[in-house]
Amino acid sequence: MVRFWDADPSALFVKRLGKSPTELGNSDDEEKCPDIWQLDNGDIAVIGRDLTAVYASRLPNGVSIGPDERLVVIPGNMLSAAKVDIPDA
User: How far apart are CA 66 and CA 6, in angstroms?
Assistant: First the structure.
């Protein structure tokens, strides 16, 4: 199978998109917290709860999770706060 996009594991973290988990009240400054980061190649890294197994059997039609992919969930306020840092298409 041909992949049209693949993650580059050598890409580096450049900047947080939005506010920190602590600023949003999603963390009390512990090591385990959701986050959204832009990488130096323009890709986005999302740190969230791995709920792949929970959602795998109830994905909408046309949605799939590859064997090397994970479905992660982040708080909605985190994505809303990142909107200012995400350019329009």
Answer: 12
Q: How far is CA 16 from CA 46, 69, 80, in A?
A: 10, 22, 13
Separation CA 74–CA 34 (nearest Å): 6
Per-residue model confidence as pLDDT tens digits over 31-61: 678 999 999 999 999 999 999 999 999 999 9
Give 41-86 as a DSSP string: TS-EEEE-EE-HHHHGGGPPTT----TT---EE--HHHHHHHGGGS
Question: Which residue's entry shows tokens 């949605």?
Answer: 63
| CB 50 within 8 Å of CB 32 | no
What are 33's two structure tokens? 């917290």
**CA distances, 79 to each of 12, 45, 67, 84, 86 (Å):** 21, 12, 25, 10, 10
In the block, tokens 């323009």 appear at: 42
